[in-house]
Amino acid sequence: TELIMRFLKTGLSPLRIEEISLLEAYVLIWQIDGRDWLNEWTKHPEGLGVQFTDKDEATLKQINELRQAVVNPLLSLKETIENSTGRDCAKDLYELLVDMDVRTALKDYALFLNNSGHLPYALECERVWDILMSSLDDMANLLGDEFYSPKEFFAILNTLISSREIGSIPKGLDAVTIGSADRIRTSPPKVVFVAGANEGDFP
To answer: Which of 3, 27, 61, 108 has the fewest CB atoms within 10 Å distance of its CB?
Structure first.
């Protein structure tokens, strides 16, 4: 349950914030865990000893629909990659990410960070998709046609991604420096513009 909730709160899931909150409230009230996610939930959304009303029935139905929206894609992936080659596992995970439109979600979040004044974080967020795709390509090439269990595959993938660094271009390497000729100090620049200079006349 903890891993599922962490996934939902990344902002990359198809659920809205209020839907995640509704689902999480039920999970906490009834201590949902493990295989409980695979079965229909039938208990009252408000807890023990509360009588069902039509509104409660509708809420419970919505909660189960949300549960299915979360579980079905993950369960489908698990079943697909059971006893699959490393190459196929990487391909199936890629297709899941595409179906969930994760790339668009990352772009939207990067735009939000940029508009909030967090440009370095926005740049890092933009690189996440490329790093993930590069990691999946490496997994496909590295594991090839050998067979791996889902647990083995994701353990290797986690190790690979953990070794990657997300960085941004240092400001000093992507900047324009302006100053007077007798005071400015820079490392060897590629291009220098001298304002007011004429042939034979240095300002």
So the answer is: 3
Residue written as tokens 């962490």? 6
Six token digits for residue 130: 């490329």
Q: Cα–Cα–Cα angle for 68, 72, 76, nearest 5°?
A: 170
pLDDT at position 64 over 80: yes
Distance CA 179, CA 194 (A): 10
